[in-house]
Design a protein that fits this description.
The structure holds 2 protein chains of 2 kinds. Helices cover 70% and strands 0% of the residues of chain A. Chain A is an all-alpha fold. Among the domains of chain A are: 99 residues, Rna Polymerase Sigma Factor, Chain: A (Orthogonal Bundle); 126 residues, no CATH class; 51 residues, no CATH class. In chain A, helix 5 packs antiparallel against helix 6 and helix 6 crosses helix 9. The N and C termini of chain A lie far apart (67 Å). Chain B is of the alpha+beta class. Chain B has a single domain, classed as Alpha-Beta Plaits, CATH 3.30.70. In chain B, strand 3 and strand 4 form a beta hairpin. The chains are: A mainly alpha, B alpha+beta. Chains A and B meet through loops of A and helix 2 of B.
């Protein structure tokens, strides 16, 4: 007798790779998912009795393929179904290894580029990636992204329908489109990480399971695209940020700023892995935004932060990937380096599009406080508190505002 | 697979009729159509939107109205139907359309009507 828990764990471990291969063989995302679900039911029944097979992935692939054949037979009539049926039946009679390693790698890459296709809405890309590559259930994806399960199910169904009906190809992009499409994939993975790292709403500052999931996807991408410096740079960035995750909130759930964090609570394993990944990425000599951000994160993790160096890296980042967020971070780094942070901040404060950007007002308040402008700091804190959607963060801002009076 | 490329643009944003810019624009469309000829199933430019008439049948009565069915800034100015292997190829053709830089190209798969086996 094998426990259902062990069966589910073994199945989950294999499911994303099996799904990737199955979609190619079946030629239909939805049908492949249904067949995989059928195979799960079969696995529970069989593995309970006989134990988990030596190569569960091969077992699941074979069974899921047969279930897909059964489903196709029931829906006979459409020309494309007949072609799929012939292809699958032929595969089923061959006895080559269904989990042939290079083929599995290629299939997972295909699946990543399909799930992150720019013709899909960003929310759909995130949902599909977590569902198909992360192996999360629809309910888990919904919970992690703070939407109802029904809404997430609809979103995933629509996306899969579009993949099928619009002819979104199941392939790795050609050489000339690959760099741009890969950047899109990395953006989806980093979005998943950030969803977990700083939940925009809700009382939990950290939805850690999403961070872990994004790192797992990052490791998979590094394995699949071993020569890309930015892919490794993104993995390094996520590891270095995640290493400090446990120290960002104290035992009472209050926010702890970086300079006050208990370093013994940093994850030394993550830090070391992140630094190694960063070194490997930088050694390729093709720097990019993720590597720069990872280098900044690594400097933050040093015993004493090298603020002039951090400010310089933000300057470089602003050059290759300009954004108000980068400029805001540069202003803060300039301030800590002893320079005139308020001067860097001034153009951002004049930008009407950033009027409701909470971190800008929080940083402005802090700079005014340091400059001795209590009245100005009080107004800026009030603005930041109004704009904060996170209870832990709001409590910290209120504490700092109250401290102005003392 | 067949895709329809719906060519949208704001007439006010394009070159004035009979101007040298309009002639150059016409040349760009001709070149684009020629380049795409091998995969093109059908395609045509449309007369401008003031020539449109919209037809509706309500309670057995035919209602006609002058103008397009929806008042939008960007108008449908023409279409192509192309036959290419997948969406990526269709999107690549759409990106090459001369109006892509100032208007929009909507790419829609042509529905496949299932055939009886």
């Amino acid at each position: 007798m094998t426990s259902d828990h062990a069966i589910e764990a073994a199945f989950r471990e294999e499911a994303p790779a099996v799904l990737a291969t199955l979609i190619r063989q079946v030629g239909d995302f939805g049908l492949a998912e249904d067949a995989l679900q059928d195979a799960f039911a079969a696995a529970v029944a069989s593995w309970r009795r006989d134990g988990i097979p030596e190569r569960p992935g091969a077992w699941i692939t074979t069974i899921a393929r047969r279930r897909a054949i059964d489903r196709l037979r029931r829906e006979r009539g459409q020309a494309d179904r007949i072609a799929a049926l012939q292809r699958l039946s032929e595969l089923d009679t061959r006895d080559d290894d269904p989990m042939d390693a290079p083929a599995v790698t290629d299939d997972q890459l295909r699946l990543i580029f399909t799930c992150c296709h720019p013709a899909l809405a960003m929310e759909a890309r995130v949902g599909l990636t977590l569902r198909a590559l992360g192996g999360l259930t629809t309910a888990e994806v919904a919970r992690a992204l703070l939407v109802s399960e029904a809404a997430m199910a609809r979103r995933l169904t629509r996306a899969k329908q579009k993949i099928a009906a619009a002819g979104i190809p199941y392939r790795v992009p050609d050489h000339d489109e690959l760099p741009e499409r890969l950047r899109g994939v990395l953006a989806v993975v980093y979005l998943v990480f950030n969803e977990g790292y700083a939940a925009a709403s809700g009382d939990r500052l950290v939805r850690g399971e999403l961070c872990g999931e994004a790192i797992r996807l990052g490791r998979l991408l590094v394995r699949l695209m071993p020569d890309d410096a930015e892919t490794e740079g993104l993995l390094a960035l996520m590891l270095l940020q995640d290493a400090r995750r446990g120290a960002r909130v104290d035992d009472h759930g209050a926010y702890v700023p970086l300079d006050a964090q208990d370093r013994s609570r940093w994850d030394a394993g993550r830090l070391a892995e992140g630094r190694t990944a960063l070194d490997r990425a930088l050694s390729r000599g093709t720097p990019g935004p993720y590597q720069l951000q990872a280098a900044i994160a690594a400097l933050h993790c040093a015993d004493t932060a090298d603020w002039p160096q951090i400010a310089a890296l933000y300057g470089e980042l602003a050059r290759v990937a300009p954004s108000p967020v980068v400029e805001l971070n540069r202003a803060v780094a300039v301030m800590f380096a002893g320079g005139d942070g308020l001067a860097v901040l001034a153009p951002l404060l004049a930008d009407a599009r950033l009027a409701d950007y909470q971190p800008l007002h929080a940083a402005h308040a802090e700079m005014l406080r340091r400059a001795g402008d209590r009245v100005g700091a009080d107004i800026a804190y009030a603005r930041a508190i109004t704009l904060s959607g996170n209870a832990v963060e709001r409590a910290e801002l209120e504490r700092r505002r109250a401290a102005l009076a003392t | 697979m067949q895709y329809m490329l719906l060519i949208y643009g704001d007439p006010a944003a394009g070159p004035a009729p009979d101007s040298p810019e309009a002639a150059a624009e016409f040349g760009r469309w001709m070149a684009y159509s020629q380049e795409m000829a091998e995969v093109t199933v059908a395609g045509a430019p449309l007369e401008p939107v003031p020539t449109a008439t919209t037809v509706r049948l309500r309670d057995g009565e035919t209602l006609l109205s002058d103008g397009p069915f929806a008042e939008t800034k960007e108008h449908l100015g023409g279409y192509y139907i192309i036959d290419v292997p997948d969406l990526d190829t269709a999107l690549a053709w759409a990106a090459k359309a001369p109006n892509a830089s100032y208007g929009s190209v909507e790419v829609r798969p042509v529905m496949q009507i299932p055939m009886e086996a």
